[in-house]
Amino acid sequence: MGCGFSDIKGGQQAVGGTPARPGDTAADPGPNEAVVLFNKLRGYGSLFTSMELSLAASNLRDRDIASKSDPMTVVYLKKKDGALEEIGRTEVIMNNLEPAWIQKININFQFEIAQPLVFQVYDVDTKYHNVPVKSINLKDQDFLGEANCNLSEIVTKQSQSLTLNLYSDKGHGVKTAGSLTVHAEETASSRTVVELIFRCSNLENKDFFSKSDPFLKISRIVEAGGCVPVCKTEVVTNNLNPTWKPISLGMQHFGSKENPLIIECFDFNSNGDHVLIGKVQTSLLEVERLHKETSGIHFVRPSSDPRDHDKVLKGELFVNQYVEKHVDSFVDYISSGFELNFMVAVDFTGSNGNPRSPTSLHYVDPSGRLNAYQQAITEVGDVIQFYNADKYFPSWGFGGRLPSGVVSHCYMHCVKSKLNN
Fold first, then answer.
1. pTM of the predicted protein model
2. Superfamily designation of domain 190-326
3. Disordered: where is this region (predicted)?
């Protein structure tokens, strides 16, 4: 399986590798186009931490007559419009009102957005016990209880565990349906960073009046078919035996060490029409082996005729460095007590208009619609509040007229999070 190169754009800088270190003289490489595309294709708007949720319940209601309930939990992500998006289901545990499910629920934790979760527990009817859980029709099952929380509420706990009350009528009833404990844990791959140094030898020259200007593009083959770009090295000019700068990538970008990878070598052209020199299909496990054995792997050139074999080239790819490192993550910091604060300053000068006028940025709409200031403060505060223990946020105003009639250019008060009102 191959990956096309017609979509490769950008300049000579590396994409997806190690960020510039203090003292580097190279210009800022700008947006990381490969990583942005990698995340975008999966619906992730930004960087994330892969998490696994473990679930256990206690004191569940018994809805069976001759035995005990057979519980299963369904986990949803609640969207801004209130719609529920299912992200996973546990297995069914037979005859148990104190279940501890084995099946983990995978979710990507994104610090910069609120991720409200909804947990619904069902008693699964006997006729569904041999049916894959994804095929179980929830309308045919007995509802046992529902719990709600934000993912941030779990990961900010030192234990990364949170016990929630189950409600008997989907969030609005009496708390008599038992409890649900949710434990969040980072997947091992998200805590591992791989540092690599690649070099090549005897590359084919694609230029007439000089030597090729090679760079590498690493892509991951996905189950659905095709490739997703993971990383692009910088361009080494006029060199058929290049060694590239170190690149550093999280293990989650590779999926697993066994996941197939395509490494392509291109001759850079400033018009964006880069010429393929050769490619190899490999894996991170194979890359590690090449480093240990100090051996290389030959590039091949894909045949235009599917009946012919790819041509093996003289050029080889070597791995000068392969290092796996365990790194502390954002979740490690916040679960250990690290807090974030939110400070805001609001402009009350006359430039914002008469606050009684609907055209003013300070206008308080009787319908409850938020003005621009309220909306900005609410959207940021709704995220940050989970990372602050007392949920008090200092706020300043300037250019406002105080009750005394004096115009002040600096006054302060604290705002309590709406969740604790």
1. 0.51
2. C2 domain (2.60.40.150)
3. 1-29
